[in-house]
Amino acid sequence: MQDLVESVPDDYPKNTRTVRRDLEALEAVGFPLVSEKHHGQSRWRLMEGFRDIPALGFSATELMALLLSRNLLKPLEGTEIAESLDSALSKASAALPPQGHAYVRAMEQMFTVGLGPHKNYREHRQTIDLISQAIDKRRTVQMRYYSASRDGTSRREVDPYHLWFAAGGLYLIAYCHRREEVLLFAVERIRSLALTDHPYQMPLGFNVQEYVQDALNVMRGRRIDVELLFTRKAAAWVG
Predict the structure, then answer these.
(1) 78 Rama sector, left if φ>0, alpha if ψ -120 to 50, beta otherwise
(2) DSSP states along 73-129
(3) Residues 187, 83: Cα–Cα separation, whole Å
């Protein structure tokens, strides 16, 4: 028989609870398990006949969460990012027996994710792929960008730092050579983009999370402290 969990001390309640939760999930999706005692420790095994099942690099509950999270990337359908995730999840779901797929479908009937209004980036696949390559290779890009505020298109040379999905849209965080500052660029407004051979280095003090933490959705500006007063009845809806 094949070892599933090597061993867990019976006197370690936290680990035992975690393992038992995962074992229950495995049994729920159809994996036949047996347990035995070995030198005072519990050991779980898969029954004979399941030797060829692919090894999981994560727990069964983690696998379920991954399969159910597929809808989170719906705005990126048709792009390489979403297709890569679908491929990875398909390989992961191959580890589930038929009962497991039925279990996942049942869970999808109980739990869904509401994304709200969002843009679709299928037609911007090539742009996203080029941006991803530029970020990975740390290469400056040249682009034609449409500015809604100026209602015009301009040529820009930028150092792409990060792709950020927020408020239903995908944004490029990049250093703009023209403005000499880090800016947010809406991906769907990029009219054309080309990689250059010019390498760049992200400033050591720059942190993406710190950059976006003060943003109001995707609008950024000088931080202003304000004080709002609500009635007792309205305060219950503010969070």
Answers:
(1) left
(2) GGGGTTSHHHHHHHHHHHHHHTTS-HHHHHHHHHHHHH------S----GGGHHHHH
(3) 19
Q: Are 176 and 145 in contact (CB under 8 A)?
A: no
237 Cβ contact list (under 8 Å, min separation 6): none
Tell me if 127 sits within 8 A of 187, measured CB to CB.
yes
- All structural domains of the chain, each given as residue ranges with its CATH number in brackets, are 2-110 (no CATH), 122-213 (2.30.30)
**Residue positions counted in the chain:** 239
Task: List beta partners, residue 183.
Answer: 174
Name the one residue in this structure whose structure tokens are 């202003």: 224
The three-class DSSP label of residue 239 is coil
What pLDDT, in 10s, does the model give residues 38-97? Answer: 777 777 777 666 655 555 555 556 666 776 677 677 777 777 777 877 787 777 777 666
Contact between 198 and 159 under an 8 Å Cβ cutoff? The reply is no
Closest of 5, 56, 65 to residue 35, by C-alpha: 5
In the chain, where does DSSP find H-type helix?
13-28, 60-68, 80-93, 98-110, 125-137, 208-213, 232-235
